[in-house]
Structure formats: C-alpha cells, structure tokens
Design goal:
By secondary structure, the protein is an alpha/beta fold. It has 11 helices and 14 strands. It has 2 domains: 3-223, P-loop containing nucleotide triphosphate hydrolases (Rossmann fold), CATH 3.40.50.300; 226-289, Alpha-Beta Plaits (2-Layer Sandwich), CATH 3.30.70.100.
C-alpha cells in the first residue's frame, strides 16, 4: 500500500541544534503511526514539519503526493492537527470556534451544524458549547480541540498528546473513535501513554535526540529486542531487604515492584533461576516473557523513560 506520508532525510535545525537529524519515515493510508520519545527528542517538531507549520532545514517530504515544501496550502486543507497545548480564539465561544474552523475549510452551513451536533453529542460537550474556552474544564477544551481536528474530514490526522492528563472516560472516548474510524484517516500520534500506543498503533517509531532509533510493529519491536530479558515474579510475601538484593545483583538492568509482583529486566545471559534464587521459597510463580514496549523504550533511548 502506498504511503500517505513520506519524509526522507529530514533535518530541522534551530541554530546549531538539530531537533531532527536525518529522519526518514513513511505512514500508510489508513494506518495509525505512533511516535514516542523523551522530552526534547523532537516529537512535536516532527509533527509540525508534517503539518507544514515548520519548514525542514534539509530533506524532502510528500503528503498525499503533494510536495511538502511547495504545496503547503493544499496540504494544510487535508490535515487535522491537534497540538499538545489547547489553542482557541479566547474571545469566541467553543461553538463559535468550531464554526469558524468549519467555515475556513469551506464547509457549508447546514452540513457544518450537522457535523458539530454529531461530534459534540458523541464527546459529551454539548452543554459547554456556548461557554468561552476559559470557562470550561481542561478535559472539555481537549475534547473540543479533538473535534475541531476531525471536523473538516481531513485525510491526515496529527495528534500531539491528545489524551494527556485526561480522565479515563475522556481517553476512552478518543481511543474508541480512533479505532472505529481508523480507515478514514492516516494518523500520526505522539503519546507518552504506552498502553495507548500498544492499543492503537499499527507501527511505532522511537525517537531519541532527533533520530529514529527503532521502528516497526509492536510484534517486530518485541521480537527484534534481543538484549532485554523480562522476568515476572509473584511472591508469597515481600521483605524490606528485597530492594538491597536486587540492587546488589549483577545482570539486573532495572526492576519494578507492585505489591507482591516484581517485574525484573535482566541482561540476556542471566538465567531466570539465578534471580528466583534471591527470593528462595517465597516464589509463587516466575514467568520469563518478551519485553513490553516500555522495556524496549528504556533500552533504546538515552534519557531513561517516556516523558510528555
């Protein structure tokens, strides 16, 4: 299938700093492509380049066959863009903001009202439509901004942390819509929510210091990650000395503890039995498994974890 989004060897510099360094990426039509990385890794810059809001210093790109550098106005009409920070015309009500957006995209009045009615009902913001942005909750602002991004039926959907800091109900509304309507859009989503990425994404790019250090489906990333070994251990009881035991043991990369469950990431040559032996007869169950996306991410990047 042909790619709707193609970037080749993109470099974006701010002074001497390269926010993007030789980035090449392709996103197929109707797919959801997630980009994850630490703060300052270049995620938002990448999204702004695709949206034609930031011109690359070097490199080339095509959006639905249109040259990124030469056909910016045509490209923008095909894009729905949701930035990380909510941005509205604060002097207009939410309804007026949506109406203005629709008119700028040439939607006729009757069709526009029908679209707005359908979306605000689905996302449960109808009661807030005649309020000003400053008068409503953060969650309502984000839901309305998402509605605005999809209101004009774009072919390309660019979402920068669309559900960050939202309650679970709001997240569910957005995720369900994206899953149900996936084939309508070619979507690039930046998300620090690993569960969300695993649930939604067809392909995943890990961005570190302006470079893509890994890319593939979730299955491909797991199968290609040969340097991580994960051991899930359930204990009958925990001891205060467990932390000291883990910290003092060679071959342990990192670990997480939740109640009586320990998730331990080891170097590849460490035998599971050498880890379970630390807890003697307290081990109820021990299961080695493929690494999760968060485990892969920690190993691939230099900063140590996903951040918004």
């Amino acid at each position: 299938m042909a790619a709707s989004i193609t970037l080749r060897n993109i470099i974006k510099k701010y002074g001497d700093k390269a926010a993007l360094n030789n980035v090449t990426i392709g996103v197929e039509k109707g797919h959801i492509h997630a980009v994850i990385g630490t703060t300052g890794s270049g995620k938002s810059t990448l999204l702004r380049v695709i949206a034609t809001l930031s011109a690359p210093t070097l490199g080339s790109g095509y959006i639905n066959g249109l040259n990124l550098g030469a056909r910016q106005n045509q490209i923008r009409h095909q894009i729905g863009y949701m930035s990380q920070n909510s941005r509205f015309e604060e002097a207009l009500t939410l309804m007026e903001n949506l109406t203005l957006h629709g008119r700028l995209h040439g939607i006729i009045q009757a069709d526009l009202l029908n679209r707005i009615t359908g979306f605000v009902t689905r996302f449960d913001v109808a009661k807030s439509l005649h309020s000003f942005p400053s008068e409503v909750s953060y969650g309502t602002r984000r839901k309305v901004e998402f509605i605005r991004a999809v209101l004009h039926n774009p072919t390309i959907l660019l979402l920068d942390e669309p559900t960050a800091s939202l309650d679970q109900n709001c997240k569910d509304l957005v995720e369900t819509f994206l899953r149900e309507q996936k084939t309508r859009f070619t979507t690039v989503i930046i998300s620090s929510n690993v569960d969300q990425v695993e649930y939604l994404a067809d392909r995943i790019s890990i961005l570190d210091d302006g470079q893509i250090v890994a890319e593939g489906t979730l299955k491909e990333l797991k199968e290609n990650d040969r340097d991580n070994r994960v051991l899930d251990i359930n204990l009958s009881e925990t001891h205060e000395k467990d932390i000291n035991l883990l910290d003092a043991s060679s071959g342990i990369v990192s670990y997480r503890m939740k109640g009586k469950h320990y998730e331990i990431i080891t170097e590849p040559d460490v035998a599971p039995e050498s880890i379970t032996a630390l807890f003697a007869d307290r081990v109820v169950q021990a299961n080695p498994r493929l690494p999760a996306l968060a485990d892969i991410f920690k190993r691939m990047i230099s900063g140590g974890g996903i951040h918004e």
